[in-house]
Amino acid sequence: MVRFIKITTMINVYVSCALTHAPDEYKQDILLFIGELQKIPGIVVLEFCPPPPGEKQSVLPAGDVYHNDIHASVKKAHFIIY
To answer: Which entry of 4, 18, 48, 81 is 20 to 30 Å from 54 by CA?
Structure first.
């Protein structure tokens, strides 16, 4: 008897997009792109530290944002989209 085992591997994707000083239209395009990626089965889009709604910059200290981006997201990512 032959048994087939379905193996699923989640793929971690980090979208690196420098939104801090980006135009609003670019920010919206990136958010739409991330939303489409999240719809793909097997894709996990890793979170970045965006500024709160209505704010131009993150309220987190720069060191915390760097730590999240480099030591959490980039380290876990199978793919990075620039």
So the answer is: 81
